[in-house]
Each structure stands twice: as structure tokens, then as C-alpha cells.
Automatic annotation (TrEMBL):
PANTHER family: ENDO-1,4-BETA-XYLANASE, GLYCOSYL HYDROLASE
Similarity section: Belongs to the glycosyl hydrolase 10 (cellulase F) family.
GO molecular function (one): endo-1,4-beta-xylanase activity
Lineage: Eukaryota, Fungi, Dikarya, Ascomycota, Pezizomycotina
Protein name (Swiss-Prot/TrEMBL): Beta-xylanase
Enzyme class label: hydrolase
Source species of the chain: Tuber melanosporum (strain Mel28)
Biological processes, Gene Ontology terms: xylan catabolic process
């Protein structure tokens, strides 16, 4: 199957940085953009049933001007969620969730390649993550969410996205089993998003097999938030290992026909990593001055 893009996330505050925008807009580097925050619930429906779309419009406009595809991220997530405290009965929360999905997806109908309908719904051991959606609606919430998204934009491919489902393991198996069950019920799931927040020297050797296992369900695979972080300072050995690691990720995607594209997350200068994992970062093929690192040639070599 054809590969559709190598892409990047971005966020509105970064768009004032001209040097960065030039790189982001270079379609020889990036064929796709993911808004890192501006399509999330807190950005689009900060107050119940009041929708704001200016930030996402700015990113969509940039991508469309450049001729880049857009992944919509994300509709139903436990985080950045103003209604996370709950207090709703089942029917009320279903209608809040359906209304959110319908309004946001309808707004950008025809302009979004993929939607991450669900994000991060599993614990590491493969059990359901506690969230207002699971705790109130139970195991029915994924099917309801996918059906609402399909109805709002039949042309967008619909994804379930998570981290630590890169290689095999309990969480990957939970993803496999849920998607299998949803498909058997006729729920419109088109793809599994593998975030791929990886660590230098610790990239799972089972990635390719795991993605092939997902693909055997009849869905696409997208690598959605790729970064391979290391402990600062980034030394020559780390950079060389990182190049090998990136090559392995790109090769695994090439070798799995239904792996349709790779997106990386924000560049180091704007990365979320040092805030969450102090002392770590340097996760991308460009350094903070946007100079290519050894990983860049390794990825290019694997993809061509
Ligand atoms: O990149 C996003 C960062 O700017 C936000 O502060 C953070 C807050 O939750 O979310 C980041 O993106 C996350 C993504 O939406 C889902 N996967 C994990 C990413 C890193 O936390």
C-alpha cells in the first residue's frame, strides 16, 4: 500500500517562528501536519456547547496553503478535558460526547485525512483507563464515538491512538482485541495510531510483527507522534544509536504494507518531553537549531 506522508505536529504559538515555519512548510520534508493541541476538547469546546475553531483554522489554513494533509487530533481523550470531573448520567454524557464529535468533525468535514477519534484509553496492563467516558458510559463509549465521527464526515479515516503499543505486550494485545471486537460489531474503525514515544537504545524489536498483527485485522497503521528521546547531553554515541533506532522504525513501516505514514511530534525547541521527562529530549531528527542530526539521513535512507 502506498505511503501517504512523512509529517509533523505543530502548535499555534510556534507559528510566529519564521525559521521553524519555513521548515514545517517545506513539503519535501513534511507532507502532513497534526495540530498538537488546537483540536483537543479544551481548545474547541472549553465551555459546554460553545465551540471555538480559530486556532485549528490557522493550522488548517497553513497546511492547505502548503498542500499538506491534516490529521485531526483528538476527539475523545481523558486529558485536556473540561468535563473530566463528570457528574453526568449515562445518557447525558453520551449526548455531550456525540455533540462534541459531531460539531468538531462536521466543522472540518472533507478537510481532515484521519481523525484520532479515541486517544489513550488503556492502562499499561491492557485494562481500561479510568476516565469520565469509561466510568460513566462503560465499554460502549468507543463504538458510540466512532459511529458519531463517521456520520459527521464519512470521508475521514477514523483512528484509535495510543502510546506503548509500539511493540508486543499487554497494552498492544488489548488494542488488538478491542479493534477486533469493534470491527465484528460493525463499528467503523479504519486505523490504529501508534504514537511511538520511544527511547534511544530501547526501541522494541517486536514493532514490525506487532504492526503486522494490527494490520491483519484489516485496518491501517499510522505512526502518529514519533520521537526517540535520550538523556541530555546528546553525545555522538547517543546520536548514532538514535539514527539506528529511527532507521528501524522507518524500515518497520516500509515492511508493513498497511503502515501508511509516519508523523513526528514537535521539534526539540517546542517539545513537550523535557517538561514531562526532566533531563531528556533531543528526540527528533533535527536539533534545537533545526540542523539535521544523523537520524535524518538514516530515515531518508530507509524511506527511499
Ligand atoms: O504536545 C502536547 C503538549 O503541547 C501538551 O502540553 C500535552 C498536554 O497533555 O499534550 C501533548 O501532546 C500529547 C498528545 O496529544 C497525545 N500523546 C502524548 C502527547 C504528549 O503528552
Amino acid at each position: 500500500m502506498e505511503k501517504l506522508y512523512f509529517g509533523s505536529a505543530t502548535d499555534n504559538p510556534e507559528l510566529t517562528d519564521a525559521q521553524y515555519c519555513t521548515l514545517l512548510s517545506n513539503t519535501k520534508e513534511f507532507g502532513q501536519i497534526t495540530p498538537g493541541n488546537s483540536m483537543k476538547w479544551d481548545a474547541t469546546e472549553g465551555t459546554r456547547n460553545t465551540f471555538t475553531f480559530a486556532k485549528d483554522e490557522a493550522i488548517l489554513a497553513l497546511a492547505e496553503r502548503n498542500g499538506q494533509k491534516v490529521r485531526g487530533h483528538t476527539l475523545v481523550w481523558h486529558s485536556q478535558l473540561p468535563i473530566s470531573n463528570g457528574g453526568f448520567d449515562n445518557a447525558t454524557l453520551i449526548s455531550i460526547m456525540e455533540n462534541h464529535i459531531t460539531e468538531v468533525v462536521k466543522k472540518w468535514k472533507g478537510r481532515i485525512l484521519h481523525w484520532d477519534v479515541l486517544n489513550e484509553i488503556f492502562n499499561e496492563d491492557g485494562t481500561w483507563r479510568s476516565s469520565v467516558f469509561y466510568n460513566t458510559i462503560g465499554e460502549a463509549f468507543p463504538g458510540i464515538a466512532f459511529r458519531a465521527a463517521r456520520a459527521a464526515d464519512p470521508s475521514a479515516k477514523l483512528y484509535i491512538n495510543d502510546y506503548n503499543i509500539d511493540g508486543t505486550g499487554a497494552k498492544s494485545t488489548a488494542m488488538y482485541n478491542l479493534v477486533k471486537k469493534l470491527l465484528a460489531e460493525g463499528v467503523p474503525v479504519d486505523g490504529i495510531g501508534v504514537q511511538a514515544h520511544l527511547i534511544v537504545g530501547n526501541v522494541p524489536s517486536t514493532m514490525q510483527n506487532n504492526w503486522a498483527r494490527f494490520a491483519s485485522l484489516g485496518v491501517d497503521i499510522a505512526i502518529t507522534e514519533l520521537g526517540i528521546r535520550m538523556t541530555f547531553p546528546a553525545d555522538a554515541a547517543g546520536l548514532s544509536q538514535q539514527a539506528d533506532d529511527y532507521k528501524n522504525v522507518a524500515t518497520a513501516c516500509i515492511n508493513v504494507p498497511r503502515c501508511i505514514g509516519i508523523s513526528r511530534f514537535h521539534p526539540y525547541k517546542y517539545s513537550w518531553i523535557p517538561a514531562i521527562f526532566p533531563g531528556q529530549g533531543a528526540a527528533l531528527p533535527w536539533d534545537e537549531d533545526m540542523v539535521v542530526k544523523p537520524a535524518y539521513a538514516a530515515i531518508a535512507g530507509a524511506l527511499t
